[in-house]
Write a structure and sequence with these properties.
By secondary structure, the protein is an alpha/beta fold. The chain has helices spanning 36-50, 85-95, 107-113, 115-124, 169-175, 189-201, 223-226, 231-234, 282-289, 312-327, 332-336, and strands at residues 7-10, 13-16, 57-61, 76-79, 100-106, 129-134, 180-185, 206-211, 235-238, 245-246, 252-257, 260-265, 299-306. It has a domain at 3-221: Rossmann fold, CATH 3.40.50. Helices cover 29% and strands 20% of the residues. Strand 11 (252-257) and strand 12 form a beta hairpin.
Length: 347
Amino acid sequence: MSNEETPTVVKDQVKVLTAKDLASDQDVRWCPGCGDYSMLSQLQRALPEVGVQKENIAVIAGIGCSSRFPYYMDTYGLHGIHGRALAIASGLKTAHPHLTVWVATGDGDCLSIGGNHFIHTLRRNVDINVMMFNNRIYALTKGQYSPTSQHGQKTKTSPTGVIDHPFNPVLIALGAEGTFVARSMDRDPKHLKETMIAMYRHKGTAFIDVLQNCVIFNDGAFDLYTNKETRDDNVVYLEHGKPLVFGKNRDKGLRLDGFRTQVVSLSEYSENDLIIHDSKSKELAFILAHMNDQPGYPLPIGIFLDIERTTYEEELEEHIARAKEKEGEGTVESLLFDGQTWEIPGT
């Protein structure tokens, strides 16, 4: 069934929800050729495919080029302040668990000023979907280096080269006990849409690091992985239950040598010798995540980890229910005068 034919039930009637239904009446104002267009387009295609009702979708953003996202979605949305999108989204999901909440954030918005909100959202496992637009630069503020800018990269705030070593977003997400951690690319729209669908179906915080090109301030940052001439030899796709094979001729693979990955030729090894991807294995996810921009190794693209854990809002509801059962509904007055008060004599 195509996106255009996917039915959604609204008020006892069958409505055909399409990508066009999710597009707002606002002019999309990103630079021509920006990877953000791909992100917007694929989410608008993915959501009708899973059949979610439009009135049950909310898109939250912070500050940055990516954070214009809510304006272009004909859904509920909120353009927040710098670095606070995840805090807002967590509160919204906790108050309205029936909503499917999506967060549009950039590598600066998410990993710099919003870094604490990011790791705490992941450890809490709030059931929201976090799309991080990673162009390795601060683009809206005209080209300063970001937490994912590469060591030695020359920018307006690092004219002689960045001396900070970059964050690996996938490793941060795994280290914060994320339950769904993935990576995709703006220039692989099919894979991007499929990953978004998997994020929607995951119960808990779903995080995707999207390699996204900034044509103005960091053009070509990911050419090695997106250019048709070099992509196949430098990207390995992670598919659960399948061996890690890559190369233009599908003639190379990855095997484990102890706890380290090793690139091998399939003329010397068979697919049975290779790593079989297991998206339920935290250990394998960490091993693969360390292959980030390592010379001679392909960059893993796909779902590193997809596991189950109780969500934050589920446990919160249980706590509230137990408290009500034990103490009753309660009142504001009882909250304010519950015995934890004191008087200061002589005042």
